[in-house]
């Protein structure tokens, strides 16, 4: 699912999306992966195209997505010089005593639901792919 413009709560597909981590981050994209346990695979990715502002831990659990506050919108707009098409806000458990607030601004958001294997195996199903760091035989 592609989202061209969002400044509110994003709707995730049904599933157990408790465990999250960053699987890619460069000029072109910021990619978050999620599942109930990230040990062997993940089944959901939030792909932010052309990330302009990212305040997010490398891994976290149980995010609660919400609309960005007016202060968050103003902060990002002041830094970027314009309001971004996509601005996603959420609180999550990053291992501390209290949940942490996160904010991501980008040109576009794609929500991808498919099985992404985090380890090598020979018998990959057609509806599966490997995470970028997985190499044959590893």
Secondary structure blueprint with pairings:
Elements: E1 2-3, E2 19-25, E3 29-35, E4 41-49, E5 53-55, E6 59-66, H1 70-80, E7 86-93, E8 100-106, E9 108-117, E10 128-130
Parallel strand pairs: 9-10
Antiparallel strand pairs: 1-9, 2-3, 2-6, 3-4, 4-9, 5-8, 6-7, 7-8
What does this structure look like?
The protein is mainly beta. It has one domain (2-130). 8% of the residues lie in helices and 46% in strands. It is built from one helix and ten strands. Strands 1, 2, 3, 4, 5, 6, 7, 8, 9 and 10 form a ten-stranded mixed β-sheet that branches. Strand 2 (19-25) and strand 3 (29-35) form a beta hairpin. The radius of gyration is 16 Å and the shape is globular.
Contiguous helical run count = 1
Helix content: under 10%
Distance between the termini: 31 Å
Class by alpha and beta content: mainly beta
Radius of gyration: 16 Å
> Roughly what is the average pLDDT, rounded to an integer?
90
How much strand? over 45%
- Quick one: biggest sheet? 10 strands, mixed
Order of helices and strands: EEEEEEHEEEE
What is the multimeric organization of the chains shown?
Answer: single chain
Number of strands: 10
- The number of domains: 1
Uncertain stretches: none
**Can you tell me the overall shape?**
globular
Summarize the model shown:
With 138 residues, this protein is mainly beta. Helices cover 8% and strands 46% of the residues. It has one domain (2-130).
List the defining traits of the structure above.
mainly beta; 10-stranded mixed beta sheet; single chain; 1 helix; 10 strands; globular; about 10% helix; about 140 residues
